[in-house]
Amino acid sequence: MAANTPSSSHLQFCWILNGGTTTHICKDRLAFIDFIPCHKVIGGINKKATSLEVLGTGDIKVIVTINGREDKTITLCNTFYCPDAADNLVLES
Questions:
Q1: pLDDT in single tens digits along all 93 residues of the chain
Q2: Which CA distances in Å does 59 have to 49, 70, 89?
Q3: 27 contacts 84 by C-beta, under 8 angstroms
Q4: Which of 17, 18, 39, 50 could form a disulfide with 89 if both were Cys (CB 3.0 to 4.6 A apart)?
């Protein structure tokens, strides 16, 4: 699976589907379609990872591409903005 921000935007952000996270995490502030500043710290996504600072939360629209299927636009709700994250992560549920 691949996911990007909508192509109508000049911005594109790649995403990783991750079963080890408890929320969606985005390191790119410009990806958010709405944003509420906040400040908290969450644990890393694995035992060896450092904690991540959350500077806000909001929603992000992404285009999901799966080979052989039509692209779909989805909204990742309540995504944490963590500028120090190594990758943008989608919660696998």
A1: 445 555 444 456 788 887 766 789 999 999 999 999 999 999 866 667 788 999 999 999 988 888 889 999 999 999 999 999 988 998 876
A2: 25, 23, 13
A3: yes
A4: 18
In this predicted structure, what is the pLDDT of residue 79? 96
Domain boundaries, the chain: 2-91
CA distance 25 to 88: 6
The residue written with tokens 């909001």 in the block is 58
Q: Which amino acid is at 19?
A: G
Q: What is the DSSP-derived secondary structure letter of residue 50?
A: P
User: What is the β-pairing status of strands 25-26 and 72-81?
Assistant: parallel
Quote the tokens at residue 60.
């992000």
Sequence-separated (6 or more) residues with CB below 8 Å from residue 7:
63
Would you call 64 helix, strand, or coil by DSSP?
strand
